[in-house]
Amino acid sequence: MAEKIFPRNLTARAAAVIAGNPVNTRLESGVGNCFPGLEFDVRNLDRRFFPGLVFNFGTLPVVLYAIERDDPALEPQPGDDEATRRAIPALSSAVRRAFDRLGAAGGHWELVRLAQGGRKIDTVSQEVFDGDGGNVWRLVRSLERDQVTITLKWAADGATARARKATAETIELTHYRRRFIDPDRGTISPVYRPGELTQSLCSPWQHDFRDCSCNYWASNHPDIVLAEDPLGTGELPSGASADPQLATQPLDWLRADRSSRVIASPVDGENDQRRLRHYQINQEWAGLAFVLEGKEISAVYAPRDETFAKPFDTSDDLVQELASLCQLEHVVALEYLYAYFSLREPDERGMARKLSDDLLYARHEILGVAISEMRHLRWANQLIWSLEQRGMVKNRVGPELRPAENVPGPNGSRPRALRPLTPEVLADFIAIERPSGTLDGAYARVISTLRSGYPEVLLQLARQIAADGMDHYSRFCEIQLILKPYDAKAGKSPPPYLRPIKPASSEEAKTAIDLYTGILGDLEAAYKLGDMEEASSILDARKKMTELETAANALASKGLGVPFF
Amino acid sequence: MPTARPAGEPGRFHLLAGDPPLALALDGSRLYAIDRDLHDALMGGDATAAARLEAMIGSVPPGADDFHDVGAPTALSLNVAQACNLACGYCYADKGQFGGRARMMPREVALAAVDRLIDGADGRRVTLGFIGGEPFLNRALIHEAVEHAAARAARAGIAIGFSVTTNGSMLTAADHELIRRHSFAVTVSLDGGPSLHDRHRRHHDGAGSFAGIAEAMAPLLAAPGKAKIAARASVTRDDLRVRARLDGLTALGFREAGVSPVRTGPDPSLVFQAQDWQPFLREMIAAAEAEWRRVAAGGERRFSNLWSAVTQIHRGSARPLPCGSAVSYLSLGADGTYYSCHRTIDDRRFALGTTREGPDRAGRLDFIRSRHVDRQEPCASCWARYLCGGGCHAEVVSAGRMGCDYIRGWLEYCIRIYDRVLRRRPELLS
Is the ipTM of this complex over 0.90? Predict the structure, then answer.
């Protein structure tokens, strides 16, 4: 009888001792960078790919570094099939017989060849492996859990190349590539010593921190930040600086001059010049600013007071507002999408390289913002269904998947419009997304209402939507920066990054419109279920979105845009 | 709702039937859901099942089993007025005079005790409370003591909180302002809506007090600032209704309200007797069910008895004493004598030092050592002892332990509802 108990309250949970590592130490909780890595270095697994031996991939040729006489992988392991179990004793005894020779003093053994499944690869060529043992490691990483034959060659200390060649002694050994994870228990073999898997990790707050070339640090290393508000200057209710310059100018977080307001360059090398030098970071790392909500902060953090906005009296009023926000998110997503397809494709034949690069960037960014608005549409619907499913609403309104008729802007509301991305339209998009402009500002009352008497998770969701507005704003500003030079040159003629595009007739756009309608149907079906969301509708919608992109691109190449409304 | 006793009880755990079946491990007040097979085996008297459950729940390192020392108290209530403008029929304080004659606490006594409280804080947050009688009969002293304490605490770098228990009938605009400015925790003694309240809470001339209280409290209820205003209703045996009382208090504008049964008092016709506890438990559960229906649908929490129990269960509170009385909390009588709490003022059995020498450390240690729940009967063999703590010291001495079945029933109910909160609105527990 498998009896179970389930800890419920805090003391029961604290007292529960569960075998294995806590969840936050597992690989799936990490940021996923596995070499050199922030949680563990996968190369350290492969050092022991061959039972009984330990290699060092730091040099080329790769060298045998140590011998592990008691390696449990020299015996059959759980999960091994019958054939493997039968083969292992003979293979292991050959490896064991070689141990004494492999441990000889006066030189070292180089890994010169790998063979598996009838394929052989020599692993010594400086040209092929670019002088880097790490490239041999990549080959080792790709070995399968099967028999592998390695060839090791003796290199005597101090011997000249010629003498080495003359006395070249080789040993060939065959065994099964190590099974790294116990298939039953999911544990890593005890042959790995404590600390072995983590020994070569990136080191935060030291040289690694400034010289990391993969820009893949976790949240303890912000790249680009906004400046702290100087004492006594205001913040907008959204948390953005009242000074528009401070609110929008990105700074390099690692800058040596902490008071510098030099805008971070999109070209990484230029920022590097202004960063803390190596000796500095070792000594002055503590001077790096904390960053909260994208902004540097040196004072005690006080959560923003969102009471400025009047909370809604009832959950029903709140849900009504959320429904109109859904419509708004939806309509701007469509406007952005239409504008996206008005940009020329970067791989057009004969296009100048610079224009092609700029278009690649601009298209990527505007599509990113459109997708983000689609996500907001989902989140706003999620807020609605969460409230409805908890029985906090009298009259159900969700799901809300209609696009709004009008778009509010700084100068009042305007009718929705499908327009190519001309400079004027881009300026309009920027105005919509400006911090504490119309869109994120619209969430203020929602946030203010959710602060009291509602589940915390809903508040976080609403805050996330509002915070994204800042990101949209800077992305559109970047697009403007990049496209501006073309506008000046173009004068009165249409800018070279646009293709002439006008809304297609419903006949011409039938495929695209059918797909769009289908997507809305799928989303409606999924959102109706809310938290019990059924994945297949979402998967269908995603598939149709990909097809819609293809259809819309095909239309755009003929000068036609999708008439979403 | 007594539960059949499975094998293994009384012992280290207590079993609650239901879906899912729950087991409370007594040490650490740890709550587990268990699978039905195990539950059925336990209820079927399978002794080995009890052993298996004990093995699974294991044990936690024992907490402070004994008391080696007590530090300076961090909470003190000043009985600033041993007199009252009301003459409630069931008052434990005998119309505020605690069996003695009406008197006010002299200024020097109050300030000396305040200084001693803050000077002994050693960095810890302290709480200063005002009680009576009706404390606002000595309004000037409250105002002076608060300002004095706030300033002294600020100089000492100590955080300080204030509380007051009042009948609410005498509050002025200046009092409201003081309460808001210092973020008081205010407990107002109100028994429900007008008719329920006025039944026993009357002026000396026999007139009901509800209307006056409603008027005096209205500005504070409408704009409490950061003060926390709660109502507490006394339930007398002549009217055991709970929900009606809570509804009356909510209608008046209270966002938090609780009840407490009258266990001791001068009029025996109002004091709870053995047969009252079972119907009272039904009343409590009915009120809690109504509360939960509202909260599950997103409403605010109001019924403080329910939520304090749920919070206590969530934290796994396991205490050998019912309250902080004599450990971290003392009460000061008008004559400058410390007592174990506000309920024992002027009862020499509970006297624990004077402002002249300070709280009597040895006396306090003796007091709590002798009252450790493991050393009391029938507590030592009760599964609920670490959640209950053994019952109010003052009441145990004067009336014995009454209503233990009620306490167990209420705790079982609260454990069950805790499990529902955990599933439906876990954010309320964070």
Answer: no
